[in-house]
Amino acid sequence: MRISVAGTGYVGLVAGVCFAERGHQVTCVDQDQAKVDMLEAGRAPIHEEGLEALMRANREAGRLSYTTDHRGAYGNAEAIFIGVGTPELPDGSADLSHIAQVARQIAESIRQDCLVVVKSTVPVGTNHKVEQFIHDFLPARADGRKLRVEVASNPEFLAQGTAVRDTLQAARVVIGTDSAWAEGILQRIYAPFGLPVVSVSRRSAEMVKYAANNFLALKISYMNDIANLCERVGADILEVAEGMRHDRRIGGHFLGAGIGYGGSCFPKDTKALEHLGRQHNYRLRTVQAAIDVNEDQRTLLFRKARNRLISFRGLKVAVLGLTFKPGTDDLRGAPALSNIPLLLEQGALVTAYDPAGQERCRALHPEGEEGEGGIRYANSVREALEGAGACFVFTEWPEILSLSPQDFKQRMRTPLVYDGRNIYDRLAMLEAGVEYHAVGRRP
Ligand SMILES: NC(=O)C1=CN([C@@H]2O[C@H](COP(=O)(O)OP(=O)(O)OC[C@H]3O[C@@H](n4cnc5c(N)ncnc54)[C@H](O)[C@@H]3O)[C@@H](O)[C@H]2O)C=CC1
Ligand SMILES: O=C(O)[C@H]1O[C@H](OP(=O)(O)OP(=O)(O)OC[C@H]2O[C@@H](n3ccc(=O)[nH]c3=O)[C@H](O)[C@@H]2O)[C@H](O)[C@@H](O)[C@@H]1O
């Protein structure tokens, strides 16, 4: 099938490349010329394992192209997937301006019957509005025949760092439409994937996405809440999680306590769902609790360290990990970005290391930045530790995970470690003479 995809970010690009991999003819559209130039040169603007290899193979097979020309791309597409951003507005609601812009471009461009599919995460009712919006802008045709344009929901569940695998081997594909015509097209698009398809109404599909993300966020905040109590009563959250995960009703995923969830989605999707509730005079108390716990959790270790050290002024602080999780170069919502400004304000001399997120962080916090403290970037995780008086671990990249207690003991001036991901052996650290603070662990 001839498919166009609007947006070449984590969702749009991966979807487009995977549709091509499954045999469809795909055009990826982005308004950002620099991104399209990069894609044309065979490079992915995002860090995702296996993506560039698939881009190359499908480009060579003639099934994949990139363009900024939305008119050409949407004009004769049989299906157009929308994967543009829906970021958070100051009141917590989702900013739908990019979606509206694409809807308008589609209306101005299409020349044949076409199914529009919203992959972006959007509040319940948005698909309906997009459909109306497109119809409002559809120009009258010379022959008087009205084009058939419908909008269906197909929320995306991939996680960054494993995006290609999560798409090609998704646990399920959710399609939301109230029309047999639209469902038929979506079934044909997904047939070559051989994945379980859950077909629901359009509004339910929109809600599935928020309900799933919010449930996962709630799980994390719940574990962080319990972790904070563990610290106060002398229990250990890792042992507690181990005792919980064997219960299949609970499951072993997303029980990881630490410095809270980050990323471009959980923080915004919790707020957007809470906002949707308020719009409908319903207070989602569980979701609000998840948001509140997460807000506090992000700077928990900074506050602990400030109490312990009294002052950061002139102290060399190693920051290990900048991205919101390993396997991605994405800094959106990263806990490190909530802590670095606090450390700099307090006069710390930060040395940061991240294998993928360093360049993006440099753009936000340039080396030698004016201020009380300063930041520089190390070439290796071990270099970052050299001579440090304190260390914060924010992302569990493999090279950070593999550090031994001796690495901290021998390289740091004062081996004082704040581990936001609970990744080190507490006893081994103590035995090596490292002062080790984690989240919800036994003292
Ligand atoms: N990042 C993730 O892991 C996931 C994201 N989502 C949802 O998918 C949506 C997209 O997220 P990301 O891919 O992370 O966004 P992103 O910010 O990485 O990419 C969005 C892209 O859309 C482009 N764009 C904006 N307006 C455009 C237009 N009119 N025409 C063509 N391109 C345009 C931008 O230049 C950008 O390249 C959001 O709603 C998000 O909540 C859903 C599941 C996973
Ligand atoms: O809508 C989205 O964008 C996506 O959001 C998440 O994916 P992602 O944000 O890429 O990453 P996750 O692996 O879910 O991690 C999110 C955050 O939670 C944190 N986390 C995760 C698991 C855990 O046990 N504890 C914990 O603190 C991670 O460190 C990270 O900061 C969901 O997992 C995807 O299913 C969803 O499609």
Automatic annotation (TrEMBL):
Chain residues that bind NAD(+): 30, 35, 86, 121, 268, 332
Matches recorded under Pfam families: UDPG_MGDP_dh (PF00984), UDPG_MGDP_dh_C (PF03720), UDPG_MGDP_dh_N (PF03721)
Which controlled-vocabulary keywords does the entry list? NAD, Oxidoreductase
Do the record's keywords include NAD? yes
Enumerate the Gene Ontology biological process terms. Answer: polysaccharide biosynthetic process; UDP-glucuronate biosynthetic process
- Give the positions the UniProt entry annotates as the active site: 265 (nucleophile)
Protein's UniProt keywords contain Oxidoreductase: yes
The record's top EC class is oxidoreductase
Instruction: Name a GO molecular-function annotation.
Output: NAD binding
Enzymatic reactions:
UDP-alpha-D-glucose + 2 NAD(+) + H2O = UDP-alpha-D-glucuronate + 2 NADH + 3 H(+)
Q: What is the protein name stated in its UniProt record?
A: UDP-glucose 6-dehydrogenase
Name the species this protein comes from: Anaerotalea alkaliphila
